[in-house]
Amino acid sequence: MKVLIVEDEQEKRRLISEAVNSADGMVYSDIDYAHDLSAAKRKLQKNKYQLVILDINIPPDSVSTAATGLGLELLDFIKNNLKAIKPTYVIGMSAYREGVDAAAEDFNFPLWRFVDFSYEQMGWQSTIKDAVEYLNDNNKPPYTADGNNYHTDLCIYVALEEELASIKNLPVDWVPIKVAHDDARYYKTQFKRGKTSLDVVVVASPEMGMPIAAVFAAKLIHTFRPKYLGIAGICAGVHTKSKMGDVLVADPCFDLGSGKWTLDKKDGELKFLPALYQRRLDDTLRTNISLQGDNKLLLENIWKGFHYSKPKDHPEVIVGPMGSGGSVLQALEMMEQARERHKNLIGIEMESYSVFTACEFASAPKPRCFSMKAVCDFGDSKKADDYHDYAAYVSASFLYEFALEHLTSRHDPS
User: What is the CATH number of domain 152-406?
Assistant: First the structure.
């Protein structure tokens, strides 16, 4: 929940902030401040606020003194200017009688309220606290898009129960989220270390494949409005490019089935002509993932942390082309055909292209997408499930460490 306090007097700002933060569920990072009319207008053009607390007597700009009733111009801006992102609720305040009289008519409007401010009689703080708690209780997903603000730091998509189990086994406490009219199983937590704190949501789709991945990715985006959308889990690696347990990071990602079949005029046989429409990894994410992958001690510790069947060597991180296909590859010939689509192919899986596409065509603000899956087989006739648990664990663990090291909160300016 985001709150904007429009107030030019420092002590009044402090007391109002105190009232807001006394409400359950509020943290200081959810409050923005504007000292004058111009600053408040700029804030309201960039952010969707659930609550605006407005002093009726404010300065027009940062170098002027407060003017009686000028805050009412902000109300007019909210009501009548198309550039304003309308807040859910507005509380007007003034310690002076002339401000009260000026505001009487303008605050005679649904979901807006006027409160007398006083340094001696502090009952107004309870009014603000109650309003914040009411709005907070109703500030639940699906979140409204305003084109600028994220509501969650990181969403994670997985397609298998074992992938979900590995995410839920990370050293954090997951809590189920119930979204109205949606039967998907969402879980939320916080990744915390030092000054880093990220709000995280994970969802597992009920089956594998690109169509359902696209649906669930779109649901994550439009329900939780994440700054980042990560894909974790298992994949098939290319023998000559990777080994069992390596983390494969898709860049680019493409659809193995995109293209058309045509009849060869010479031999009369059907041939497939691929059309590889690619989705690329954000440059900053790619750089930071590569940096994290250079941390051999981290990867060795991840390897040591798994106490069941695993390869003899610790994983490596490989960034390169990944193909997404509609079926599980279990024959060497099919893997070779897939490799013909891209000479530098490092691996194959069944969901990432759809999730990248959902992010690319989402409404603003769009999340930045990344896929990091670990090799559990090589898509050949020797395909088995021996390292599924290990690969899912490695993928989840690397994503967790990467998020804590390199992802930034939605509250940060970057």
Answer: 3.40.50.1580
